[in-house]
Amino acid sequence: MAAALTVEQEQATKEFIEAVNKCRAGRRASPVSWSTAVKFLTARKFEVPRALALYEQHEATRRREGLATLHPTQEPLLSELRTGKFTVLPSRDGTGAAIAIFTAHLHLPQCTTHQTTLQGGYPAKLKKVLIVTAPLWFKAPFKILRLFVREKLRDRVFTVSIPQLTLHIPRDSLPQRLGGTLEIQHEAWLLHCLKSMTNRSGGELCEVTPRVGSPLSPTSKSAAESPTNETTNNVVSSSNSTSPISEKHKIKNGSVTIGDIEITNGDCWIASDEAPSPVQPPSSASSGFSDDDSLHGDLGLQAVTMEQLVEAIHSRGRAGLVAEYAEIRQRPPDGSFNNAKLRQNQPKNRYTDVLCYDHSRVCLSQVDGDPSSDYINANFVDGYKQKNAFISTQGPLPKTCGDFWRMVWEQQTLVVVMTTRVIERGRTKCAQYWGPESGDEVSAGGFTVTTLEVDTNPDYTISMLLLTNNKTEETREVCHMLYTAWPDYGVPQSARALLQFLSLVRQQQTKLLASRGDTWAGHPRGPPIVVHCSAGIGRTGTFCTLDICISRLEDTGTVDIRGTVEKIRAQRAYSIQMPDQYVFCHRALAEYALSRGMLEIHHLAMLPPTIEEDSD
Length: 616
Fold this sequence. Notes:
The chain is an alpha/beta fold. It is built from 16 helices and 20 strands.
């Protein structure tokens, strides 16, 4: 069920429909529907001028390629559909995303024109493209060309092997020839598509004119969603040495399939097979590729140099920072907490007043068909130019340790950062979900956690863990990094130790990512880093803020602490829990800039001191 629109979004939708229908009326075309308008606006963040530009581009493509009217029961489209080169699977991936497959070796350019292949095409918004078993002649130049494309495009298109597909899509959601156990019902999907399209009300982007009594007449049997102009997330597409992958396809409810292409809600995967042989809640690529940037990738109006920041803080004093934080804190949560408030999920929350947003929550795979088993008190948080760089979560409870490790496994996490001790001031802050000594073994849910080695330092403890999936008997190494230098009250007087720890976290992430080789096809900085304290908002938010601001400072020479905190709080409610933590972020960044020669020592003395205050 689609989320309700805000008042501003509804107004934008009305403006879009009014503008588009004026043009369509001149061509005697039926009015555009509300749902179609929302799709274009969603793709452009409800900015009406940009959405109208996208619509005009789409219409121009349809006219140029002759895609205005579909005849799915007539040649040549009938034969094209029945080849099975494109199909949508009846299952979903671990995130609930639909899966579409394109099999390139079934596409014969000498027999089928590109206009026929594009019939019903729509620039679906896809998150990730996986090219499976691509031939050497493709892979070699592809790796070079990747260096010259935009970063957001480069982060979404990858080549993988068939065995690596199960790292991205569950085995029971993959066809047998791609290493899975699923049986494809292509004909059933086609029949369902036709029935859905012929029963639609007017106002859609393509007209369908089926022939009564045709080979594809509607039946009640169905295998997947029909293809319309919905956003899609995952695509698996197969290519071979004879045909490039350039097709666009229409998708409904985030689900489409053609031959060996798999499209699901979230990511776009292209699978390439030379012989017969598939996206987070958050991620995007397509035939046109999404232009959604990371929340922390823009410069913003509040960006300043470190010198400007220090001078502004000096003139306003500590009271100014506290007042600024108070303004941020007064803003109400920007989202709902419906899943966290469900009766069956309430015991999984450590604190009754620290809940996770619905829109950015990490969804686990369901266990034994139990809908509530997908809940964990955890949210995705974007990093600097990286979607879902972090997972901000609470310290596991004894009853949620299994869920915690299931999340680590399903999100392919390499590094877990813990910024609280298990017990502080006589109070339990977190369950002992891993073994603190070398050789310890802990079982939680369907996982076994074995401690391989432990490196203890005055400020932190690093443990290498072996995470075993008891069901599949697969194993992965995970680095557990416990920061122990955070005082029981307030924040550190000096940020030096925390900055060193943050650098070590990045080093460990890079090291473990390199050991994965090409089995990781996501962002170059790797899978999400799981960060937690006790509630997952105070120290956790501070850690994420510093990582994002430092990355930005290194890249552009500017910072925007307030903007960063506001955006983090939009994904993990109440992040940066106390004013002292907000003040500390400013001092820590100044210490970092000083160590890199971006500031002089006298600038540090201009900053106000932190205060001691109990915080998460």
